[in-house]
Amino acid sequence: MATQSPPVSQTKSFSTVFLIEMWERFGYYGMQALMVYFMVQRLGFDDDKANLTWGAFTALVYAAPAIGGWVGDKILGTRRTMTIGACILMVGYLLLAVPTDSVYFLYCSLGVVVVGNGLFKANAGNLVRKIYEGDDAKIDSAFTMYYMAVNIGSTISILLCPWIKDRWGWNWAFGVCCGGLVLGLVNYIVMQRTLMHIGSPPDDKPVDKGRLAAVLGVGVAALFVVAYILQHKDVAKGCVYLAGIALLGIFGYLIANSTRSERSGLTAALVLNVQCLLFFVFYQQMATSLSLFALRNVNADFSIFGIHLFDWLPAQFQALNAIWIMVLSPVLAWLYTYFGNRGKDISIAAKFAVGFAVVAVGFFIYGVGRQFAVEGRCSSWIMVWGYGFYSLGELLVSGLGLAMIARYVPARMGGFMMGGYFVVTGISQYLGSVVANFASVPKDMTDPVASLSLYSDLFNKLGYVAVGGTLLAIALLPLMKRLSDTHSGHATQAKAEAKALAAE
């Protein structure tokens, strides 16, 4: 990090990262809204294959930042790596817009997206951590607002891309995703001076062309590896299990070779990561079972007291998640800051427990929709309120996942552990696709009443699993308090000692 900081406010620095994250997520979620439908309706995949392909892809998308964070910390620099990642993502979405039905070309294009996301995601989050380093209350608030950036971008693209697809075709819709990255990069170039004092040591040195070439060369090889994995579901499953074992091993090594303060913080982060793993099984339903449920068993019209308001396309229901998060994010961010300034903010572990409870309510709402369905079709308001409770839970768990890393993990491990958090997310995304296949609808099942029964059973079971997650999180609260107190006490002592040495 630079030794001298220019007079740039934290808010301006945060805004720069906020905006490029917003446009990057515009591209990703526009693609997500369409991809499972594209595989089922255009390429002829059955539900099982579409769900597992999407699950393997998202697992790789979220696992790749573990490497990208390390590249940012040690090789190219946090800012520089984030920018390169955004450029590669732009190319990936442009390839998706190429008019071809080749499945292998699709897999290679998704491979480019994986590589780009790996370089972008962890480093963008790590920049936010560096901006507010040392202020826990502001970190929680900043990451909640950062999470809002995700949902501004995703709301616009989820509403826009299906509409474009219906009028001009799949390729034009994927092309719009590429356009989002173009806008994000232009905006970043204009505002990049606000981040010149934020980054990792390699950012302050001229780019090493040899290292850059090596990173890009590995990236090209990685995209073909991704294409191979997406073609072979057994390989994908093995990679998920291997990633889980490797991550546990790395956590164990770091915990065993850290100071007492670092050890307690890393242990707390490990426990919360396990809870995040469970949460993202629920999250993956949005692009899989909930998406297909909206296609087959939800009325497209929104009405109040029998008065028709408007119609939504099935893919657009995913935007409800982002809309709710945009409504709730400022409220939660204000509450975190308000209570934090008064020393009354509840712990991240307690927020996780509340999060699982409201996620349970959301899935029970989806499940109970069957009781009010007409000819196998549920009211669109079932989706509105189900997504509302689910989204509040998402903010309390996923929205604070990056804040958890920022708070508990030592700064020297920040980029890598941000990436480790995304590996956990990737593992659970794949597991979530496996869970979604419990409601896989056979191609010869065209009766909405029959498919509604499959989906409702799955959603009710997920509600009970979320109740279990709530009870587990509550049971772990005493342990988490001890770990957090130990971490905070030693961190405060270390700061005091450093200040005393500086005074001498």
Summarize the structure.
78% of the residues lie in helices and 2% in strands. A hairpin with a 2-residue loop joins strand 1 and strand 2.
Structural key phrases:
504 residues, mainly alpha, Growth Hormone, Chain: A, two-stranded antiparallel sheet, globular, disordered N terminus
Contiguous uncertain segments of 5+ residues: 1-6
Given helix and strand content, the structural type is mainly alpha
| SS element count, helices | 18
Secondary structure: helix percent: over 70%
CATH homologous superfamily heading? MFS general substrate transporter like domains
Strand runs, count = 2
Q: CATH top level? A: Mainly Alpha
Q: What share of residues are in beta strands?
A: under 5%
Task: Explain how this protein is built.
This protein has 504 residues and is mainly α. The protein has a single domain (11-503), classed as MFS general substrate transporter like domains (Growth Hormone, Chain: A, Up-down Bundle). A hairpin with a 2-residue loop joins β1 (301-304) and β2. The chain contains 18 helices and two strands. A two-stranded antiparallel sheet has the order 1-2. It has helices at 10-42, 47-63, 65-75, 78-96, 103-131, 136-168, 170-191, 209-231, 233-256, 260-283, 289-297, 319-341, 348-368, 380-397, 401-408, 414-436, 448-475, 477-503, and strands at 301-304, 307-311. α1 (10-42) runs antiparallel to α5. Residues 1-6 have low confidence and may be disordered.
